[in-house]
Each structure stands twice: as structure tokens, then as C-alpha cells.
């Protein structure tokens, strides 16, 4: 955990147990740092205006004024896109409009660089129908975000497994499945890999520069829509 994330987490930890205090030793164990680091972090938070005070004594420690702090809104690009995918499934319900407004509010307070990255990642997600329910392997998701070559073990419809080096370009989801859209170096063209048939994933060091082009896939364009954060 980097220092910025730790500072956010430290305030949230103190908020959760407020008005009870947490000792520096307890917090050091929680965040796997030294007590001196915790003391420096608390000092930095106090200097920035966070209402943290120290309670002396054997059962003392640091406490925060819960009434004057708010939980941090610190969405990553991946978290924003995950929310957009989840909210997509509310289409047609009485809550669809409110859900979209909530996402827009959260995106509005994200740092500009994170917003740009979230829009970039959302542009790699395309949905058909109401969206899928099957999971995407974490290593696959990480490679799409980072733009890294993948070596897949992939099972065909009869279970035969082949090894494919692929350039991950994005996702395609329908009502039943997620597909990894990638340039397959074995086949020399774009392919859609059903994520529940991926039996092994190995990220490689090579960067991917190719971009996703839906017109290269044999899917009627009118059936596909891009995920949106607005």
C-alpha cells in the first residue's frame, strides 16, 4: 500500500471505531509499518486539517472527530468502470436514472487523470443485451488495463486446450458470458475468447499497442453498444 492510500485508510479506520481510539502500535500492525511511520502519518493528516487528536494513557491512542470527517471518495479507474458495468444491469428498473446520477457524481470528484483512464478503460468494454454474469479472471482484467501481452491456455468447445499468445484489446459481454477480445498471434487476426474457457493465464512483459476495432469482428454494429460513464 502506498502512502496516499495508507493515509486514506488510516482516516477511515479511525472513523469506523470513533469515538474509541486506536493506539499507534495497533495501527502499525494493521498497516504493516512502524509506529514511527504511523506517528508521521497522523502528523501529516493533522497538518492538513483532519480532526485527529491523541488520548493519553494505557488505553489511549488516536481518535478522529467523526462528525467532521467524511469517508474518502477515491475511486480508481477500474472501480469506476466496475460500477458502470453494475449499473448497466439496472437498465429498465425504477432505479436506473438515480444510479446513473450517482455514478456521475462520483466521477465528478475523481482526479482528472483517473477520469481519463476510466474513460479509456470503459471504451474497451462493449455489451450486447443486458450484460453478462460470468467472471473475468483477475490476470486477464489486469492485462487489459495494463496493455500487456498474454499467454493463454484456452479450451475449445470439446475441451481441447491450446496455447495462444494474444494481445488483449477489450471485452465483449452478452447476457451469458464475458469474452476477451484480443489479437490472436496464432490465428493472425482478432478473436473473442470466452473467459470461462480460459484455463491458464500468464502475463508477458511485451506491451500492446494495437487498438480495439469492432468493425474487425463479425458482429452487426447495431447490436453492440459501448459502456458509458455518463
TrEMBL record:
The keyword DNA-binding applies. Residues 138-202 form the WYL domain. It comes from the Bacteria. Residues 6-62 form the Helix-turn-helix type domain. Transmembrane segments: none annotated. Coiled coil: none annotated. PROSITE patterns: WYL (PS52050). GO terms for molecular function: DNA binding. It holds the Pfam family WYL. Keywords: DNA-binding. InterPro entries: CBASS_pafABC_assoc_protein, HTH_11, WH-like_DNA-bd_sf, WH_DNA-bd_sf, WYL_dom. This is Predicted DNA-binding transcriptional regulator YafY, contains an HTH and WYL domains. It comes from Micromonospora mirobrigensis.
